[in-house]
Amino acid sequence: MSVPDYMQCAEDHQTVLVVVQPVGIVPEDQFFKIYKRIASVSQVNIRDSQRILIRYRHHYLPENNEWGDFQTHRKVVGLISITTCATSKEWPQTAERFHGQKEVYSSTLYDSRLLVFGLSGEITEQQRTDVAFYPSFEECSDVEKRVEDFVESIYIVLESKRLDRATDKSGDKIPLLCVPFEKKDFVGLDTDSRHYKKRCQGRMRKHVGDLCLQAGMLQDALVHYHMAVELLRGVNDFLWLGAALEGLCSASVIFHYPGGTAGKMMGRKQSISQPLDAGKRHRAGALTTNGISADTSTEIGRAKNCLSPEDIIEKYKEAISYYGKYKNAGVIELEACVKAVRVLAIQKRAREASDFLQNAVYINLGQLSEEEKIQRYSILSELYELIGFHRKSAFFKRVAAMQCVAPTIPEPGWRACYKLLLETLPGYSLSLDPKDFSKGTHRGWAAVQMRLLHELVYASRRMGNPALSVRHLSFLLQTMLDFLSDQEKKEVTQSLENYTSKCPGGMEIITLPDGLKLPPVPFTKLPIVRSVKLLNLPVSLRPHKVKGLLGQNISNASPFIYSPIIMHNRGEERCKKIDFQWVQGDVCEVQLMVYNPMPYELRVENMGLLTSGVEFESLPAALSLPAESGLYPVTLVGVPRTAGNITVNGYHTSVFGVTSDCLLDGLPSVKTSGCLVEVIPALPRLQLQTSLPRSAYTPHPMSKEELSSSVSVQLFNGETQQLTITLENIGSEDIETLELTSKIVSTKEKVFGEFLSWELDEALSHLPLKPGQSVTLTVNIKVKLDFSGQENLLQDLNDDGISVTGLPISSPLRQVLKPRAETKPVGSESSKPPPCHTLEAVLNFKYSGGAGKVEGYYRELSLGVHVDVEPSVFFTRVSTLPATSTRHCHLLLDIFNPTEHELTVRAKNNQDLVLHASECQRMAIQVDKFDFESLPQPDQESIRFSNPKQLEEERQHAQGCQINSKLGICWKASVEGVLNQLVLEHLQLAPLQWDVLVNKKPCDCDVIADCKVGDAVSLEVKLTNRSKNSVGPLALNVVPYQDYQNGVQNYDLEDGVTFIGSNTFYIDTVKPNESTVCEGALLFLYTGDFYLSIKFQDDSAGRELPLAWFTLPSVHIRALDTPPQAGA
Fold this sequence. Notes:
Layout: E1 15-23, H1 28-39, E2 43-46, E3 50-57, H2 62-65, E4 76-84, H3 91-104, E5 111-117, E6 131-134, H4 143-166, H5 194-214, H6 218-234, H7 238-256, H8 273-278, E7 287-288, H9 302-305, H10 309-323, H11 330-347, H12 350-361, H13 370-386, H14 390-404, H15 414-424, H16 446-462, H17 466-479, H18 486-502, E8 510-511, E9 517-518, E10 528-534, E11 543-545, H19 564-576, E12 577-583, E13 588-595, E14 602-612, E15 616-619, E16 621-625, E17 632-640, E18 644-655, E19 658-663, E20 671-672, E21 676-680, E22 686-690, E23 709-716, E24 720-729, E25 737-745, E26 756-758, H20 761-764, E27 774-782, E28 837-848, H21 850-854, E29 857-870, E30 874-881, E31 888-896, E32 902-906, E33 913-915, E34 920-928, H22 940-944, H23 948-967, E35 970-974, H24 977-987, E36 992-998, E37 1001-1002, E38 1008-1012, E39 1016-1025, E40 1034-1043, E41 1049-1050, E42 1057-1060, E43 1064-1067, E44 1075-1084, E45 1088-1098, E46 1115-1120
Parallel strand pairs: 1-3, 1-4, 4-5, 5-6, 10-20, 12-21, 23-29, 38-46
Antiparallel strand pairs: 2-3, 8-9, 10-13, 11-29, 13-17, 14-16, 14-18, 15-17, 18-19, 18-21, 22-24, 24-27, 25-28, 26-27, 28-29, 30-31, 31-34, 32-33, 32-35, 36-37, 36-39, 39-44, 40-41, 40-43, 40-45, 42-44, 45-46
Helix pairs in contact: 4-5, 5-6, 5-7, 6-7, 7-10, 10-11, 11-12, 13-14, 14-15, 15-16, 16-17, 17-18
C-alpha cells in the first residue's frame, strides 16, 4: 500500500467501505449530485438494536484493498455504480462494464448495485435486486431507500462472515491471514507447529475483533482485541500485534469519544451507548476457551476491557513502534500517527501530539509523486493547526506551496502555490488587512513575514495578476517599513514602480476566485502625517454673524439650568466641531505636518483632501520631500461648492504609482483639533485699491493678518489730504450692502475735528455691485493737533483796557523776537527739529450680499491709515493790546515756523505774514470779544447720561470752534529754501545736453530703433554746451548688453555685436553755446533686443562739474531678420 489516507481517524475502524464509481460516460456534476445523496446514508439501523456505519469513496486503489484482511475497514465490501443508458441497445454493453467493474474488487465484495439513468422500456420492467432504473437524474426519489436496502444486505453478509469465523471448531484448521508482502515469507513453514497455530489464532482473533467492531458489537471487539494481543505478543508477530493494539485503541476511542476525533461532528457519529447494550447478552458464536468460542457475559467487565485515555496513547506508541519495524508498513504507520494525533488533539495534549507528527515527518514512503508530497505536507500542516502549533502548521503549508512549483514539475501550479501561501499567513501572525498593523506593537517575526510577502508577490506575478502583485508589494512596504534596510527600501520601491507602470495600484477591494477579499492598502507612512489642522479663512474673508440673528439657528434650549446629558453631548460636539466657518465658493485650507521616513527624496503626487457632508472640489497638490526630512508643513486646499457641515475624513495621495485614501479614523497617532466645520452660503468678495502708496506699518493693537492693506502718508499739522479708494467686487455674488466706519487707534495726541471723513451716498447709489464692477470712494484725511508746542498758553483778557503781557514759555522752540539771523550756529539747541507725531486709524468696510446675506452673514475689510504729522506752526506766546473799545481787542500771537520751508500765515481781516524757516514773528489780530456763556448748552437729557469729564470736553470743543471761526488762521507753505533748491535741481535742464541718433533718427530710452541683422547701423552722439564754461576733452565708451528682464544683464556679446571702427568716441573741448558730433557704426550678427550703455571718461584734471551733467540716455535697438516694411 503506497498511498496513505490522511483523512482517516480512529472511528473509521467501525465503518464498512463502499466505493461509488461511474460506468461509462456520466456528467461529472450529475455524478457528484447522486454521490452526495448516496453519501448522506452514512448510518443504517438494523432491527432497532444494531446499526452499521458506512464510509464512501469515489476513488480507491485496488492495491489498498489487498490489506483488507489486515484491517477490515480497508476492505471494499460494497460497490455502487452509476451509469447513463439512452437506448436498450446500449444496455448489454453497460451490463458488461458493470460486471468488469465488480471483478476489480471481487475478492472482497459483499454486494453491489447499478443505478441506471435515462433508460425506459421493457428492460426497466425486469425485477432485479442489483439494478435500479431511473428515467433521469431528476426523477430518482428513492435513491436513499435503495442505498439503505443495499447496506442492510451488506450487514447480513458481514454478520454471516463474523459468525462463520467465530464458530470454527477447535478441530478445524484456522487459516493464516497475511498481508501482501508476507505471502512469500510463509512458503514452506511448518503449519503444524504450536508457534504457527498461535500465530493463526492471534491473527484470526484480531480479524474477528474487526468484524465485531464493524457490526456494532463494541464489547465483543474489545474482548477479541485483548486476547489477540496476548496471543500475538507470545509469538512476536509484531506487525499484527501492532494492528491488534491499534484496534484496541480504536474501540476505546469510540467508547470515550462518541463525537468522533475527525475535528468536526459528523452526522453518523451518534451515541454508542445503545449498541453497547447488545454486547451484554449472550450471542451465538461467542468465544470458547479452547479456541474461538466463549460466553462474553462471563468475560472481564466492559470498563476493564476499554483502555483509559492515557493508555490509548501508550498503546498507539507501542503499535507505531511495531509498524516501524516493517519497511512495507510505512503507510499503516503514518496513518496510525495521524489517528493518534487526532485523539491527542481532543485530549489537548499538544506536545505529545507534536512528537507523533515529528515521527510522521520522517516516515519513508518511497518515491512519492509531487502531488502526493503536496498532500502530505498539507495534511501535516492541518494537523499541526489542530493541536495549536500555528507557526509549525504555517511552515509545512509553505513547504507544500513551494512543492507546487518545484523545478521537476513541467507545469508549475502557481495558483495552488499562491492559495497555500495565503493559508500560511495566520500562522506567521500575518494579516492582509493593514488595519491590524496599526494597533500596538508588531507581532510575529518580521524577517519571515517579509520573506512570505515577497513569495506572494512573485507567485501572483507568475499567475499573471499584476494588480495582486502591486497590492502585496504595497502591503509589504506599508507594514514592514520599519524593518526594511535602506537598500531594501530602495529595491522594494523600484519593484513597485515597475509593477505600477503596467498596472497602477488603487483603493478597490480585490476579490480572489475563492471569495477571499484583499482590503486596500493606503500608504499612511509615505509620508507620515503627524497632525492635521483646519485653517481659518484670512481675516478679510471671514464671515461674521449679524448680532441680532445669533439666536436664530440655536435649537430649543433646555429649561433646566444644568443638564449633564446636554452638557455631555455639547462636549462631544465641541471636541469635533471647529468654532469658525468656511464659505461656499472660497478656497479653504488644511495644514498637514508630514515627514519622509525614506532615505531618499519622496515624490508625492495628487495629494488632496477627502471630505464628506457637502460637495467639495479638492485641488490636488504635488510635493517633493527631502530624505528623512523633519516635520514639513503641507497645505492642502479645496473649494466647498455647497453649504452645510463638512467633515475632513482624511487625505489621498499617489506615491510610486499607488493611489491611497488615508482616513484619519485609522490613524490614531495623528493629532487634530477637530475635523468638522460649518460651510455657510456664498458671500461676495471685495478688493480695495488706494491712491496712496501701501505701507508696512500696522496699528499697535492689531496684527498684519487683520488688515487687508495699509497706507502711509506724511502731513503737516493742519494739512488735508484726499485718499481715493477703489472698491472692486472680485467675487461671484452681488454686493448688496456696504457700511464704512473708522476708528483711531494707538494715539496719545488729542485730535481736533474729524480725522477721517467721507461721503458714502455716491458709492451706495451704485449698489448692488455686480461681480467685476467697482466703485470709487474719497476719504479726507485732516490732521489738527495742538499748535501750542505741547505747552499751556496764558490767556488773560482784561476789560479795563490795561495792557497785560503773557509769561514766556519755556520751550526749546522759543526764539528771540527779532528778525531771522543770517547764520545760525550748527548743532545749537534751537536748531533741533521738533518731534513728529503719529496718527493711526482703521477704516472698516462691512459688506454683504448673496445667499450669505439671507442667512445673516457679512464680511469686513480693514484698511490701516498711518499718518506721520510734522509740526507746521507753533503759537509760542499770546497777549493782547489795549483797544479803543471794550468790545474789541488786538490779539498778539508769537508764531514760530519750525519747518525747513517758508510759510505764509493768514488770519481773518489781516495781511499775510511770511515766516522763513526757523523764524518767529508776532502777528496782531483785531477780534471782537464775545461771551462764551452765550454758547448753546447741552440739554438736560444729555447731562443726565454723561459724565463731567465728557461734558467739559464738549464745552471746550464748542469754545474752540468759536475761536477758530473768529480768528480764521490758516497757513500755506512756499516751495523755497532747501525744498526749492531740490525741486529746482530736478526740474531744470542740465547745462550739458546729449542727443543720440541711430540711423539718423533720435533715440531715447523710450524709443526702440529697428535694424536688419548684418547691416551696418550708424551711431551719432551730439553734445551741446549750454553752460558758461568750456567742457572737455571727454572720452565716451559704448558698451552693448542684453537685459533678460529678470535682473540679469549679459555683457558678453562678442559673438553678437561687432563695432565698425572703435567703440570709444573722443570729444575735444567744447566752448559755451557750441556743439560737437561723434560718429561710429555697429553690426548685429543675430536677432534680438540690444541695449547700448554710453559711459564717459573725463580726461581733464580736477573736473568739478556735477555728475548729473554727464548722464546719457540708454539706447534700445531691436535686430530683425528682415527690415520692417514701411507702409506694407
